[in-house]
Amino acid sequence: QNIPFISTSDPSQSNHYALFMPAGLQSGTNYPLVVFLHGSGNRGADTTAASLREAAQIWARATNQLAHPLFVLAPVVPTNQLWADNTTNGLDNFANSSYSMKANPTSSMRMMFELVQSLEQTQPIDPKRIYLVGESMGGYGAWEAAIRYPTLWAAVIPLMGGTDPSKAAIIKNLPIWTFHAANDPTVPVTGTRQMVSALRAVGGHPLYAEFATGGHGISAEAVNYPAQSGNPSLLDWTYQQAKMASPTNVVGNAQIIYSNVFNGGSVTIYQTAPLPANPPSIQALSPLAGGGLNLTITGDVSLPFSLWNSPDFTLPGTNWTLSDSGLITNNPFLAQDLLTSTRRFYRCSTP
């Protein structure tokens, strides 16, 4: 398949994708979705090369589909574009395996997110079981997509990639299994090592398999990683992952502009593009004596944004108190559409 897709937020941008559909779809049944992000050698308008990569093919193989029927999506990056803008010295110079994430996603990253949302509306996809796999350039993309859209994924599998370690707290609760070779000459293994260390430092529990050899060609070995030492195979581990419900107020092209950790959970601000020059952030975050949480919002609050807590975030009491430019509010949760709302709104009740 070579299906065109036009960006829903910017019609001047487009890409192509291949979609594998499980046989014999049952009415009333939702199926998992695997999203595969290819490497730099598979750019263009033809999805054939990307969809034939083992990291995409393995999920669609007949024996695996028989036991675990699911969709497989393989979008492609247009020529001379990137999943994640991680380079500073040329398009395919991946020496910067750790880098500072840009404020806004690349057009290819944004279209991938929009495409997944579109398929959720048109296909019987289980929103609790959407899995992300990326290799090389797509490994960078998998890490960054996890950070930008952490509520979308049930599990993330970055192969030979890297990202911004300062953002580790945002995805510390995501199931992640990452792979790299120590002698990779193209994407330095330090990027994966640093991200794994950063995740563990903030309480995350990523799985990491590092091969002594294999260079930059370990993708097939990684996705076929067998059960060993009491751990399941990569495929079986992936099938076991299912996420908790996503916040209802994060829709459209909303993206994370702030995230912080508190009492074992996280507090995140989402906002839709275009973003203000000085987007909202949380200046102070502290518990209240009577229960709940006090937040001080700073920055440009003239545009709609949403504030929410992660599913495992627990606090005594039932309300948050928010201070917005000195105005104290105790709002109930307003489940309005962020794209059409003309006012700010907050999630103020704990789960």
Would you mind describing this structure in some detail?
With 351 residues, the protein is of the alpha/beta class. The protein contains eight helices and 16 strands. The strands form four sheets. The protein has a six-stranded mixed sheet, with helices on both faces. A four-stranded mixed sheet has the order 9-10-13-16, with no helix packed on it. The protein has a four-stranded mixed sheet with strand order 11-12-14-15, with no helix packed on it. A hairpin with a 7-residue loop joins β1 and β2. The longest helix has 16 residues. The termini are far apart.
Question: What's this, in brief?
Answer:
Helices cover 20% and strands 26% of the residues. The chain is of the alpha/beta class and 351 residues long.
Distance between the termini: 42 Å
Helix content: 10-25%
Low-confidence stretches: 244-254, 261-266, 309-351
Query: Which percent band covers the strand fraction?
Result: 25-35%
How can the largest sheet be summarized? 6 strands, mixed
Order the strands across the largest sheet as they lie in space: 1-2-4-3-5-6
The chain-level mean pLDDT equals 76
Q: How many helices?
A: 8
> Which value, in Å, is the CA radius of gyration?
20 Å
Order of helices and strands: EEEHHHEHEHEEHEHHEEEEEEEE
Q: What class do helices, strands and sheet pairing give?
A: alpha/beta
Number of E-type strands:
16
Shape: globular
